[in-house]
Structures are given as structure tokens and as C-alpha cells.
Amino acid sequence: MTQRCALAGLTAALLLLGVDTAVAGGIGSNGAQTEETSGHASGPVLDSRVSFHVKGRAPVKDSGPVTSTAVGWEPPACWYEPYWKAEDFKTYTEANWSIYESVGGTPAGIADDKARYKEGHPYKDFNVAKNDEGMWWVAVKNPKMKDDPDAGTCGRKPFWVDNGQNPDVPQAIDTETLAGLAHQRTVVPPTRISMAPDGRSTVNAPTWIWLDQGAFKPVSVTASLPGTGLWATTTARPVSLHLDAGTEDAETLPASGECRINDDGSIGEPYARGKAERTPPCGVRYLRSSGDGTYALEATLTWEITWQGAGGTGGDLPDGTFATTTEVPVQEIQSVNR
To answer: How far is CA 214 from the centre of its chain?
Structure first.
């Protein structure tokens, strides 16, 4: 009973420290990751300390994350980042060892870790003597990709890096990593198009489609790692609108269905009286009635995404897209015989 009470008390204390009580036989695994945009350790597992700040946030209703246009591109599923001061890492690790031993674990189960971190092979007493001179780096998973097979590829045990030094370790976090994470969290508003006629289109008559100037503003996301000076900001700007009429019995205008953005930031041209005989620069012409139903007109806005980060870094990231569907009823032209 005494041992059980002691273990329960120790476990409760470790939860307050943010220690993974599920670890047995050393600290080679940090457990499952949960997303914490506040960027701190919370609960019984370790979370990445990366935090995010959004400027130009899209409305919650019907908004959504962009989809990368680059086939196969995605941000990293895991990485290494500075996490522990030496004294904190010692507390964390020795607490896990105590739990392991309290539940009957044998010394052999943690012998390698004790040799590595405490006995000088290669670290002496968790580098406590250098507490203010560096950090212990650990593997963390991308909370949005924790079930991805690549999330398990960061298998290196915690390692020490002196302040101001580049760890020179594959998958160590850097500004480009942060830019990819920011891209993954870019949320844009729905593509609400203006149409004329509005409400019901007519077979063989063009339907004008446009987006007003200022309808879409740039969206920026900054990802940063507190205490390191590492940050990256991505900025998404709309550049074109792609139309899919929702049926093969239709023509897009232009034929490619790609409506480029105008110099003033608008797309297409608003319909006005006197333009009925003109062909719209952006629109669709339906060739068959939708009967009692509708056609699902899909409008996909492409967002160009660039980034800049600490140390003068920066560049381009894959464009992102976000689609919105509008149900369009199409009627036959009604004529009267006299």
C-alpha cells in the first residue's frame, strides 16, 4: 500500500511538470502529441513549443485551410527542437526513471540512458554545469500529422546544443520548417462570387461572374519558437479564379476556366445594363437546361504563398487553393408564338 501511494503521489507531481508518465525503459519516446497553439508543455505529454499568430483571419463560417497545388508537398511530420534547460531535463528524466523502477523495472532497462545522460557517455550529469549555455533538443510530431508514417522518422534521442550553434542534424527545426507549418495553418474565406443573372441562368446566354475589388485580402500566419529567435511568416494573396461549370454541357469563359486577377485586385467584370450582347471576361455559358435540378458551379480561388523569416531567409511556397460551390438552376429560353 505504501508503494502504491508513493507511486500515485509521484505520478501526480509529474503531471504538473508536463512529464510523460507512460515512458518506461528510458526517454526515447515522448508519447503522442497534441496541438497546443500556445506553445507550451501541458498535461502528461510533451507538445511542440511552436506558436502561431494569424493576421487577416478568415471568418469562421465556411472558411477553411488551403490545399497545396504541389503534388506530394507537405510540411514536415516531425522535427527536433530545443526544449529543456539542463536542470529541467534532469528533473524530467530522473522522474521517469523513478516511475520505471517503482513499478518493478530492472536497472538494465534504463542502463543505456543513464550512461548516456548521467555517467559521461557522452554527457555528464545531464550537462547541468552548462545549464545556461545551451538546450536539450527533442523530437516532436506535427500535431496535424501525428498519424502520418513519417511522424515516426525522428528517432534520435535528446541531444545537447550550445547556444548560438547550429545542431547540423537532419530534421532540426529552422525557418523553412516554420514556414511549412504556417502554410499548413493558412485559413482563407469562402469564394463567394457575384453572378448575373443572379438566381437563374438561361441556356446559351452567358452568365457573368466576378469578384469585387477588396473582396479578398492577404492572410498572414507567423510561426515562431519562443526563446530561439526563430520565426517565419507566410503571406497568402489571391491571384486567380478557376471555374468548373459542374456539367459537360457548358462552356467556361475564358475556355480555360482561369480568370486572372485584375490590376485593381478584382476578378472578372461586373455586369451592367447594356452588356447583354457582350462576352464576359469571366463567366460560364450553359448549353442545356438543368431541368428541375441545378448545376454545381465550383469556384476555386488560387492563393499565391510567399514567406520570410529570421536571418533574412524567405522564398516561395506552393500555391494554395480553396473551392466553394454554388448551385445554379438553368432554364430554357421561353418563346411565345403569335
So the answer is: 25
Cα–Cα distance measured from residue 159 to residue 180, given in angstroms and rounded to the nearest whole number: 24
Rounded Cα distance between 132 and 265, Å, is: 51
Instruction: Tell me the C-alpha distance between 144 and 327, whole Å.
Output: 32
List Cβ neighbours of 144 (8 Å cut-off, separation of 6 or more): 35, 184
Residue whose C-alpha is closest to residue 207's, from 336, 326, 334: 326
Helix (H) or strand (E) holding 135: strand 134-141
DSSP assignment of 238-267, as one string? EEEEEEE-SSSSEEEESTT-EEEBPTTS-E
Q: Residues 47, 37: contact at Cβ < 8 Å?
A: no
pTM above 0.70, yes or no: yes
pLDDT tens string 64-89 = 999 999 988 999 999 999 999 999 99
Handedness of CA 74, 78, 82, 84 (dihedral sign): positive
